[in-house]
Amino acid sequence: AVLRAHGQLDFALTTPAVNLRKRLLDYSDDEFDRVIELNLKGTFRVARACARPMVARRRGSIVLMSSMRAVNVEPGQSVYASTKAGIGQMTRGLAVELGPSGVRVNALAPGIVATPLTAPITGNPAWNAAYAQHTALGRWALPEEMAGPIMFLASDASSYLTGTTIYADAGWTVMDGRYEPTLAK
User: Fold this and answer.
1) Does the annotation mark 131 as catalytic?
2) Exposed, middle or buried, 135 (CB in 10 Å: 0-12/13-18/19+)?
């Protein structure tokens, strides 16, 4: 639709994601497949579809959404974290393959962002506070705070960046600490 309407595709942002907060041993094969299918395969499919016209035009920027969970895992996050780590490798692989065609590929790894999907955490005062205190800024991000890094990666301001992951996590990945929530079985 973008190509039909505008004749070109300059930027793509991949955001498919689902998370089932369950311990690895409690995951069914179907649940595992669902998370892998959407998070990793969905990201791949969007990136592949968007890369084709960018390669043909020899210009473009693709941002894959990762997560700070790619490097920090808590109980109940193993499968989700695995997909986000995989997106980091996909970012690097696509950067190597698409770079010679003028297409840049980077990832954004948000930390804790207050969205409807994180409402079960922000709605639990102890869990909410523990997460906020785990950041250097002592708070959750607002969704619009992810727009700046995304716009940077989309723009020519990052014209020499490819294959990298930017952690927009208020220092989460550099701080020590832990909170273990009660998980569903």
Assistant:
1) no
2) buried
Question: Alpha-carbon distance 121 to 23, whole Å?
Answer: 17
**Average pLDDT value for residue range 175-181:** 66
- Global pTM reads 0.91
In terms of Cβ atoms closer than 10 Å to its own Cβ (0-12, 13-18, 19+), residue 116 is exposed
3-state secondary structure of 77: coil
Single-letter code of the amino acid located at 71: V
Q: What share of the chain is helix, strand, coil (3-state, %, to 5)?
A: 55, 15, 35
pLDDT at 180 over 70: no
Residue 163, phi-psi category: left (phi > 0), alpha (psi -120 to 50), beta (remainder): left
Element (H, E) at 37: none
Q: How confident is the model at residue 16 (pLDDT cuts 50, 70, 90)?
A: confident
**Tokens at residue 63, please?**
């941002």
Instruction: Report the Cα–Cα distance between both ends of the chain, in Å, rounded.
Output: 42
- What is the mean pLDDT of the segment spanning 102-125? 95
How many Å apart are CA 86 and CA 73, to the nearest integer?
14
User: Which residues, 6 or more positions from 73, have their beta carbon under 8 angstroms from its beta carbon?
Assistant: 81
Pick the catalytic residue from 27, 80, 160, 179. Answer: 80
